[in-house]
Amino acid sequence: MLTISTIKADVGSIGGHTRPSNRMIEVARSRLGGAVEKGLITDFDVTYTGDDLCLLMIHRQGSGNADVHNLAWDVFTAAAEVAREEGLYGAGQDLLKDAPSGNVRGAGPGAAEITFDETAEERPAEPFLVFTADKCGPGAYNFPLWTVFTSPLYNAGLMLPKMKPGFTFRVIDMEYAEGDRVIELVSPEEHIDLAILLRDENRFGVQAITSRKYPHQQVVAVSTDRLHTIAGEYKGKDDPVAIVRTQGIFPAPEEVVMPFVVAPYVAGDARGSHTMPLMPVPINTPVTGPYCLPIVACVAYSVNKEGKLSDGVDVFGNPAWDHVRLKAQQKAEWMRQQGFVGAAMLPMQELEYSAFRKSLDELEQRFTVL
Ligand code: 13P
Ligand code: MG
Ligand code: MG
Question: Minimum mean pLDDT among 3-7, 105-109, 215-219: which range?
Answer without folding.
Answer: 105-109
